[in-house]
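Narrative of activities, Objective 1.

The group set out to show that a structural description can be obtained from nothing but a protein's sequence at a throughput compatible with the screening campaign. Below is one input-output pair from the validation batch, recorded exactly as produced.
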Amino acid sequence: MLKYAPMQMTAVRLSAVLMLAGSTIGAQSLPAKWIHGSALCEATTDPPFQVYGYDEDTFVLRENKCIDYEGPFLYLMFGREKVFLQDTGAAPRNQDIAFPVAETVQRVIDDWARKHARAAPPLIVTHSHAHRDHTGGDKQFQGMPNTIVVGTTPDDVQKFFGLQDWPNQPGTLDLGGRLLDILPIPGHEPSSIAVYDRRTRILLTGDTVYPGRLYIRDWTGYRASIAGLAAFVRSHDVSLVLGTHIEMTSKPGVDYPIGTVYQPDEHELALAPRHIAELNASLQKMTNGAVREVHDDFIIDPR
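Output recorded for this entry:
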């Protein structure tokens, strides 16, 4: 039995480490509902991580909110030569809670390799940004064979992706027949990046844009980054905008309180290019600095 729950919760039973959506792999759609925590975490039978196959080379992982209320999303993308992981999740504050992020990712990689009748490709572990709820599993990957863990400072990110003029110059990462565009977007956090997958046309936006409270730490940087993202989506075919949390309910403009571990009526994960345009338009009107502004699908929240 694995110990698994935040705060003062006792040991609970876990149904599985992986929840593989085998019947939906290749569908190029997302679930209507994800695992979303529990009203009683001691009794949950949900796995630590839900693993969803968007297609046979693209996986979305959602961390159980009973491990950490942040419940972040992680993204795994396979090319012919490399596999890309964005973020390593939120480590539990209670060390007795199971947090098998590296084990979960490795099982997906091993399963992919078996299905393709080949050796597992090298793993590159990257981050949407450096906050603890996105770097919590880094130590589990450090020292693993065939694995590179990219550092979390702006300098680390620039050097790895070969970005010469941060934050003005984008870069690319070739996974082998699959190109990712790396877009610096500081403002929420100094090392924040967006990632555009040219194959699926998915744009990963980290904590910079997602259905929740958009915390602005550096107003000038954030405003410029969103203007850059808005220009990018105008000039590129973007299918989905995927961030790393869900904090909004399905009711327009209503969010869950900070620290919520049970979200049975969540907003969907995906936003659209129009949401970036909407966010940019609002920020451009805020000429005297950021102010809190509630939208149907996100909340501008300067901190």
